[in-house]
Amino acid sequence: MRQVDAREWWLWGFAVTVTLMLTVGIVSLTFPGNRLLQNAEWFDLKEWVRGLACLVLLFDIYTVYQQLQIQQIRRELTERNQLFEVITENAADMIAVVDCAGNRLYNSPAYQKVLGYSSEELKLTSSLEQIHPEDQQRVLEAAEKARLTGRGERLEYRIRHKNGTWRVLESVATAIQNEEGQAERLVIVNRDITERKRAEEALAHNALHDALTNLPNRALFLDRVRHVLALSQRHISYKFAVLFIDLDEFKVFNDSLGHAAGDSLLIQIARRLTASIRGIDTFSRSVLTQGTSPVASEASLARLGGDEFTILLEGIRDCGDAVRVAERIQERLAIPFVVEGQEVVTTASIGIAFCALSYTNSEDLVRDAEIAMYRAKREGKARCQVFDNAMHTFAVKRLRLETDLRRALELGEFRVHYQPIVSLKSGKVVGFEALSRWQRPEGLLLPAHFIQIAEETGIILPMNRLLLREACLQLRAWHSQFPCDPPLTMSVNITPKEFAQPDLAAQIGTILVEVGIDPSSIDVEITETIAMADPQRSSLVLSELKTLGVHLSIDDFGTGYSSLSRLQGFPVDNLKIDRTFISKIDTDSETSEIVRIIIMLAHNLGLKVVAEGAETAEQVSLLKRMKCELAQGYFFARPGDHAAAQALLMNTYSLAARPSPILAI
Ligand code: C2E
Ligand code: MG
Ligand code: MG
């Protein structure tokens, strides 16, 4: 606008000068006393006046043209100003114009909407006044940069709302330069990003905290351990420990009382653990600060998931301090909790990993604390264990086994062995139990060494599907080779993980159909512990299996905590009495009496009884007398491969039947 004004002034000045010059010229030419020119021959006054009139006309045209252009520019500038006004007045972003000294020249109405200040109120304050003291320096630097370069960088800073709260703004400053190219003013566009910031902070918090208890999660815990590990490597005397806490029987509690109750218990436990580590410094003294300040030990708690909590104990003297903390935690947890109006008593197993120079990463410390916790569980729960090298060796061995187990599936190293089930009445093999074996280069491995790991890693699922298919194919072959009435049966075992599969019955059904075997010759064994873990669900799953047409057996009866009456509701056909009872019936009269009663009660419930682990002739004859229908054990045969089982069948069905066959192989 200033340029337009200047141009207009110049035009007017020029016009006045030219007009004056022409006027003076004409006046002097036509002045009566001017004889010099009038007498000159070459001078024709008329011509000169005509010429000057033409010049005036041309000049007028030029002036009008220039004036029209100036008006056009003015109109455009006015329109642009109006547009700017409309935009700034209605923009959600706050637009401010300040001069080089930081004085406010303009604040858009959005300031009132976002920050509560009217433009009159703002005019009374300096542009820095509402900015957070910690951010003022950065704002000044950004303004300076904008002044020097023409455009500042995107900047985030806090500003005080009229109500006293802090808002976060994102702003960009642009300089307005004068003709000399110097920045004269700054136009600053500010956007309120408080909500976005809050959401980002919440996301960042969630990424590092457990949603249920709001405690730090694994990632944050590992990060803390990483820092402490680095500190202990710099200061050799700085000691710390990681405690791994796992509640005993939490799954049972969760399954029986429901997840809401489980969550409530976990929240209470988190609170109690927080309280137990508060004030830990009263009995622990940091080596680093010994002699200077009293104590500098710290403890931080995290929830890794489920019922697993970890504690990082920093600045302790020795492992004894960590054990004392673990014991204190166990004492505190022993006080009953109240969940949904019920008193709940819980215990925890705690594993401790104490810092050592050999540790190079935080994951290893947590892993070792976990290994120690598992040892504490195995040794009877509700106790604490400090990690040692033997545990490490054990864990490494187990890890190797796990890897080998996965590979074994691909390499087809699993074998099925068959142990005959013999009718005590006829002495004939009436069926087999299919048992897994793992063919390793160093020999045949028994299930005791791998079933548990296969179960924990889930390998059991594909493994047992293979076993079932192979056993069914084998049975189909024997059915045609050794036809008998009723046909030979095949028993297969089900682990808790398999039993938890929602489509267990469908999976088994598919294999039976694919192989083309009559389901009634398949006997599915589940232990009473599996059956009783969730009786309602078990009842449902067993009914589904029953619908397939297979037979059902309760395996290892007597090793769980259930009674026959509790099994009454299940649609089972057979009861397999565990070998711990059978092995003593010929030596211990009390056990013998128990077995007799179990057989009697089972018969009353319409169940057939299979005695497991019959090893001696005395045991077999006692079982016969007790009217036990079937038996299985080394007395008849050890589990063997299909050739051994085939030989047995040949013995039973091709030769003349003998009253009491001893079929040891
Ligand atoms: P189980 O189902 O109770 O199987 C019987 C176990 O007792 C077998 O051990 C068998 O070899 C052993 N046994 C049989 N008669 C005698 C005897 O007279 N004396 C002694 N001392 N033992 C006898 P195995 O094959 O080592 O299997 C152990 C357990 O592993 C089985 O117990 C079963 O629960 C599980 N298992 C084995 N194979 C599989 C499988 O393929 N899948 C699943 N889910 N579990 C399996
Ligand atoms: Mg079994
Ligand atoms: Mg058994």
Describe this protein's structure.
By secondary structure, this protein is α/β, with parallel strands linked by helices. The protein folds into 4 domains: 2-87; 91-198, Beta-Lactamase; 209-387, Alpha-Beta Plaits (2-Layer Sandwich), CATH 3.30.70.270; 400-654, EAL domain (TIM Barrel), CATH 3.20.20.450. Helices cover 50% and strands 20% of the residues. It is built from 24 helices and 21 strands. The chain has an 8-stranded mixed beta barrel, surrounded by 4 helices. A 5-stranded antiparallel sheet has the order 2-1-5-4-3. Strand 20, helix 23 (617-625) and strand 21 form a beta-alpha-beta unit. The chain is elongated and about 170 Å long. Ligand C2E is lined by residues 419, 435-436, 446-448, 451, 464, 467, 493-495, 525, 555-556, 579, 612-613, 615, 632-634, 639.
How would you concisely characterize the structure shown here?
This protein has 665 residues and is an alpha/beta fold. The structure holds ligand C2E and magnesium ion (MG) (2 copies).
List keywords for this structure.
665 residues, alpha/beta, Beta-Lactamase, Alpha-Beta Plaits, 4 domains, 8-stranded mixed barrel, 5-stranded antiparallel beta sheet, 24 helices, elongated, disordered C terminus, binds ligand C2E, binds magnesium ion
